[in-house]
């Protein structure tokens, strides 16, 4: 399986299926995505992004799924703690400590709750934390689902910063951590190199810093 970071929280998983998470896509990268399935962690516009425009099969919390279905988009609604299989890909929806309003054209509506996903594709499990604070039940995500890779926000202000993300990485126990949701704007400035050095000095976890548009291969264990 190949994982491509498209900037901010947007990640493309490519294998037997292509899954695009949080399609807030910077212009230059739109062309490389032709997802089979879109997954949205929560209603904020920097995560919903191009979800409506893409109009693909979309996995999201029930409130967002209903919102999308009203727009004619084939959505698969679920909720925190549940697991579904869509076209052979498993989606477990995980807790996130964050707010969840849906925003569109200055009008808001209830987006249910913010969430994350553990996505199982081709024998690899990827945990996308969404926007979240640190919470100790991340240990359960590690114990129950054993993700190979964890995508963790490190930008602070709206989510964990680097010191909380270090503890999150320890709780989850994935071998590889990829920092996301940082340096998109000045308000979420973070130093991924310092994060990498600090985590790798104290643990066996490896931090992979990707440039927007950059990919890495992830092998099944
Ligand atoms: Ni958010
Ligand atoms: Mn966000």
Topology order in helix (H) and strand (E) letters: EEEEHHEHEEEEEEEHEHEHEE
Domain module count = 1
CATH class: Alpha Beta
Helix percentage range: 10-25%
Distance between the termini: 12 Å
Rounded to an integer in angstroms, the radius of gyration calculated over CA atoms is: 16 Å
Given helix and strand content, the structural type is alpha/beta
Largest sheet: 7 strands, mixed
* CATH homologous superfamily (4th level) name: Ribonuclease Z/Hydroxyacylglutathione hydrolase-like
Indicate the mean pLDDT.
95
CATH architecture: 4-Layer Sandwich
CATH topology: Metallo-beta-lactamase, Chain A
Molecular shape: globular
SS field, number of helical segments: 6
- Tell me which ligands are bound: nickel (II) ion, manganese (II) ion
- Quaternary status: single chain
What strand order characterises the main sheet? 6-5-4-3-2-1-16
Task: Give a count of the beta strands, DSSP E runs of length 2 or more.
Answer: 16
Our estimate of the beta-strand percent is 25-35%
Describe this structure in words.
The protein has helices at 45-48, 51-54, 62-69, 138-145, 162-172, 192-202; strands at 2-5, 11-14, 18-21, 37-39, 57-61, 75-78, 83-86, 89-95, 101-104, 107-110, 115-121, 124-128, 149-153, 176-180, 206-207, 215-217. It starts with a strand and ends with a strand. Helices cover 21% and strands 32% of the residues. By secondary structure, it is α/β, with parallel strands linked by helices. The chain has a single domain (2-217), classed as Ribonuclease Z/Hydroxyacylglutathione hydrolase-like (Metallo-beta-lactamase, Chain A, 4-Layer Sandwich). Helix 4 runs parallel beside helix 5 and helix 5 (162-172) crosses helix 6 (192-202). The protein is built from six helices and 16 strands. The longest helix is centred in the last third of the chain and has 11 residues, at 162-172. Strand 12 (124-128), helix 4 (138-145) and strand 13 (149-153) form a beta-alpha-beta unit. The strands form three sheets. It has a seven-stranded mixed sheet, covered by helices on one side. It has a seven-stranded mixed sheet with strand order 7-8-11-12-13-14-15. It has a two-stranded antiparallel ribbon with strand order 9-10. Bound molecules: nickel (II) ion and manganese (II) ion (MN). Manganese (II) ion is lined by residues 44, 46-47, 131, 158, 181.
């Amino acid at each position: 399986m190949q994982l491509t970071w498209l900037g901010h929280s947007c990640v493309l998983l490519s294998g037997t299926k292509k899954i695009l998470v949080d399609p807030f896509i910077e212009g230059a990268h739109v062309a490389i995505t032709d997802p089979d399935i879109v997954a949205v962690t929560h209603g904020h516009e920097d995560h919903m992004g191009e979800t409506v425009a893409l109009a693909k099969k979309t996995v999201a919390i029930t409130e967002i799924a209903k919102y999308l279905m009203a727009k004619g988009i084939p959505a698969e609604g679920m909720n925190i703690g549940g697991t579904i299989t869509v076209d052979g890909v498993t989606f477990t929806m995980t807790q996130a400590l964050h707010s969840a309003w849906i925003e569109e054209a200055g009008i808001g509506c209830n987006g249910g709750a913010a969430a994350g996903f553990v996505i199982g594709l081709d024998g690899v499990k990827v945990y996308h934390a969404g926007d979240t604070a640190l919470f100790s039940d991340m240990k359960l995500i590690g114990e129950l689902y054993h993700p190979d890779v964890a995508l963790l926000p490190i930008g602070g202000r709206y989510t964990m910063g680097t010191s909380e993300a270090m503890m999150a990485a320890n709780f989850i126990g994935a071998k590889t951590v990829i920092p996301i949701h940082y340096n998109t704007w000045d308000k979420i400035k973070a130093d991924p190199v310092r994060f990498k050095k600090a985590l790798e000095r104290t643990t066996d976890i490896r931090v992979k810093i990707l440039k927007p548009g950059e990919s890495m291969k992830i092998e099944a264990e």
